[in-house]
Amino acid sequence: MTDHAALYAERLTTPEAAAALIPSGARIAMALGVGQPPALLKALADRAEAGRVGDIDLYYLLSTAIAGETVLRYELTDRIRPHSLFHGAIERRLEARGAQDGRRAVWFVPTGFQQAPSVLTRSVGVDTLLATVSPMDADGNFSFGTNTDYALAVSRTARRVILEVNPNMPRVFGDCTVHVSRVAAVVENAAPLLEAARAPQQSQDLVIGGIIADLIEDGSTLQMGIGGLPDAVCAALHDHRDLGAHTEMLTPGLVELMQAGVVTNARKTLHPGKSVFTFSMGDRSTYDFLHENPVMEARPVDYVNDPAVIARNARMVSVNATLQVDLFGACCSEYLNGRQYTAAGGQLDFVRGASASEGGKSIIACHSTAARGSASRIVARLDGPATTPRNDVHYVVTEHGAVDLRGLTDDRRARALIGLATPEFREGLEREARAMGLI
Hints:
Blueprint: H1 3-11, H2 15-19, E1 27-30, H3 38-49, E2 56-60, H4 65-68, E3 80-84, H5 89-100, E4 107-108, H6 116-124, E5 128-133, E6 141-143, H7 151-155, E7 160-165, E8 177-179, E9 185-188, H8 203-215, E10 221-224, H9 228-235, E11 244-250, H10 252-259, E12 275-280, H11 284-290, E13 296-298, H12 301-304, H13 307-310, E14 316-321, E15 324-326, E16 331-332, E17 335-336, E18 339-340, H14 347-356, E19 361-365, E20 369-370, E21 375-376, E22 378-379, E23 395-398, E24 401-404, H15 410-418, H16 423-435
Parallel strand pairs: 1-2, 1-5, 2-3, 3-4, 5-7, 7-9, 10-11, 10-14, 11-12, 12-13, 14-19, 15-22, 19-23
Antiparallel strand pairs: 6-8, 15-16, 17-18, 20-21, 23-24
Helix pairs in contact: 8-9, 9-10
C-alpha cells in the first residue's frame, strides 16, 4: 500500500463519524452548488437536530436542494446559522418565514465573487470545509471537479477539511486539487450529481441574444452569466469562429459551443488552447465533458475573476444580466421588491476585466420590462444597491437595441437608455429625467 493509499485508509470513515469531528461553535465553509456533499450535510443536520452540536456559522454561495433539505432547514437555523454570500430561492424562503416569526433566519454577507476566498479565510476565518470531490489520483490528490471557486483557498487554511468522495464528480485539470495529507476525514458516496435545469427562454431572450452576438467578433474570449438570456447568446454564436472561454461559470451553452468547434481557444492571449472556469452547473453531459478533458482548466475564483487577469485576454467579452438600469447608467442585479434577491456574484469583476482588455467589451442585458410588462426595467433611480456603478457600465442591451455608454454625457446617456425602454414607458422616463435635471 502506498503512503497515499495508507493515508486515505486512515481517514476513511462514515458520514456520522466525520460530522462528529465538527464541534459546536465551528465556522464552516460549505462548497458551492454541485460541490455540496449530501451525505456529510445530512449527517451534520442530524446531529444538530438531535442537539449534539450547535452555535455553528455556515458560509456559502449558491445553495441547492442538497443543502435546503439538510443544513438549511428552517427549524435548524437557531443551531446552524446560514451566512449566504449569494441568495437564491432557499434563502428567500428562509427570510420570508423568519419575518413571519419575527426573527432572522439567514444572514447575508455582501461581497464580490473574487473576494470570497479572502472573506472566508481571512475576514471570517472559517475552520472547516465540507465539499464533494473526485476520487483520489495516484499522487494523492482529489480534484474539486465542478467547484474550485473558493473551496481551494479554504482547503489550504482550514483546520478541518472533510471531503465526500463521489466517483460521479469529474476529475478536472488545472489548479484545483487538495492532497490527502490536508484532509481530516473522507467519506464515500456515489450519489448522482445535481443537474441544473435550463431556464426557459422567452422571445425577448432570442432577440437580445442576436443583438449581443452581433457585438461579438471572431476570436473574442467569452464570459457568460447564468440564465435564459446568456443561453440565448450562446445559441446565436454558432456561426462565429475561434472564440475562447474565460468564465466564472461553465454552462451547457458554452460546452455546446466547444463541441461544435466554435470555441477553440486558438486565438486566446492568456491560456491559449484552454477553456478556463472556476465552477460549473449543468447536466450529466456537461460533467462528462469536463472529466479528464485536457482543454479544460479549473482555477480558483480569486484568479479567474481577478480583473487584472481577465484583462490579459484580448477581445474579452463579458455578458451578464441585470434587474434594473437607471438613467445614470448604473445597474442593480441583486435586489428586487425591497429585499436581497441574489447577489453581486462576479458581475463587476468581469465588467472591469473586460473593459480593461484590449478590444474588450462588457455587456449588461435585460428585458425592457418586468412583471408581465407592467414595470420598466429602465428606471429613473435604482430600487436597490448599484451592483455595477455607472462609471463601469459599457454596453447595455434590451430587445429594443444596444447602446455604448462610454464617452456619453449624462444627458446623452439618459436619452440613450430611455430609447432602450418599452415605448409606453418612455414618456414617463423623460419626465423623470427632466425633473432630475438630466435632460
